[in-house]
Design brief:
The protein has one helix and nine strands, in the order H-E-E-E-E-E-E-E-E-E. It is mainly β. The chain is elongated.
Length: 172
């Protein structure tokens, strides 16, 4: 690697890390998002528009990382395939491990989803509580944040449930 390029990249990274944490202030936040949810169960493989709303609290206690707790509601839409409709939604609680890099956040998420599912043929109605995880990136300016994230839900008796979403949030 070219020495000048290496020095420039190292300087930019150190500069980003040293930016004050004013961009990612701790405290209460409220947000909502929209995305593409995919549900795969046996031969059923379909996607639809999903929605989410969440409230959280961010803690700025450790210099290199931030922690947050979140609670929310997710509606995975109504994917359908070959006259089979599948409806899935639920309430969730999660913990976030955030790496703030100036106005940019990189984070991982781990939590539980209390879900309810309805299938139009054969499956009927079912419910339960299962784990989910995700990764994301956010951009913060003043009290406004924008997030892009991927989440994988481990729903019992369903092969795969994923959601890729974009969210906006406001910090109080």
């Amino acid at each position: 690697m070219n020495r000048k390029l290496f020095v420039a990249l190292a300087t930019a990274l150190l500069g980003a890390i040293s930016i004050p944490q004013a961009y990612a202030a701790g405290g209460l936040y409220l947000g909502a998002g929209v995305g593409d949810s995919t549900i795969k169960d046996g031969s059923f493989d379909s996607n639809d528009t999903g929605y989410k709303a969440f409230v959280g609290y961010r803690f700025n206690m450790i210099p290199i990382i931030d922690l947050a707790v979140e609670g929310g509601y997710t509606d995975f839409g109504k994917p359908s395939q070959n006259n089979v409709n599948f409806k899935l939604n639920g309430y969730n609680a999660a913990g976030l491990l955030i790496f703030p890099l100036g106005p940019i956040d990189l984070y991982g998420k781990l939590g539980l989803l209390s879900w309810k599912a309805d299938a139009s043929t054969g499956g009927g109605s079912s419910s339960g509580t299962d784990a989910f995880y995700g990764v994301g990136a956010g951009f913060n300016i003043w009290k406004i944040g924008i997030r892009a994230e991927y989440e994988r839900y481990q729903i019992k008796d369903v092969d795969r449930v994923d959601m890729v979403s974009v969210s906006a949030l406001f910090r109080f």
